[in-house]
Design goal:
Length: about 160
C-alpha cells in the first residue's frame, strides 16, 4: 500500500509541475475580430483594434483574420490596412488578400459554408520601434459597396519566440 501512495504522490507532483510550467509561460499574442453587421461590409465601416507594445526588442508577425461564407463571389479581397504608431498619424497600405482559386477552391479552414482565413501580412518579422498603444484600421476597398458575405475581419499580432 505504501508503494501505491508513493507512486500516486510522484504522479501528482509531476502533474502539478507541468501545469505550473505551462501556466507561467507568457502568451505573447493579441487578437481582435470584429463582426461585420449583417455580413454586409460597407466601404465606410472599419474594423479597428488597439494593442499595447512594451517589448521593442522583440519581433512580431502580423496577420489578417477574415471569415466569409461560401457565397462570397470573389477569390480575393482588397483591403486598406492602416497602422498608427503611438503619437503619430495613421499610415495605410493596400493589400490583395487571396482567398482561393477556381481550381482548388477556398483557402483556409472551412466548416459548413463558413471559411476562416488567417494570413500573414508582413513578409519578414516586424519590429515595433516605439512602445505604447498601436492602432489598426481595416477597410475593404472592393468595388461592391456593400461587400456581401464577409462575416468578420480582424488582426492578430504574434510575438515570435526568443
Amino acid at each position: 500500500m505504501s508503494t501505491s501512495f508513493k507512486s500516486n504522490n510522484i504522479s501528482y507532483t509531476l502533474i502539478v509541475a507541468v501545469i505550473f510550467f505551462f501556466s507561467c509561460k507568457q502568451l505573447d499574442l493579441f487578437e481582435k475580430n470584429n463582426p461585420i453587421p449583417n455580413h454586409s461590409w460597407s466601404s465606410r465601416y472599419s474594423s479597428n483594434a488597439q494593442f499595447l507594445i512594451t517589448d521593442t526588442n522583440a519581433v512580431y508577425n502580423i496577420f489578417i483574420i477574415l471569415r466569409h461564407t461560401d457565397a462570397y463571389k470573389y477569390n480575393n479581397i482588397w483591403l486598406n490596412i492602416g497602422i498608427k504608431v503611438p503619437k503619430d498619424t495613421m499610415q495605410f497600405k493596400k493589400i490583395n488578400l487571396v482567398l482561393g482559386d477556381d481550381s482548388k477552391g477556398w483557402d483556409g479552414t472551412g466548416m459548413g459554408d463558413i471559411w476562416y482565413v488567417k494570413r500573414r501580412i508582413n513578409n519578414q518579422p516586424y519590429k515595433f520601434k516605439k512602445s505604447g498603444v498601436y492602432e489598426f484600421s481595416i477597410f475593404n476597398i472592393m468595388r461592391d459597396d456593400p461587400l456581401l458575405e464577409i462575416m468578420s475581419v480582424g488582426i492578430c499580432v504574434e510575438k515570435l519566440g526568443q
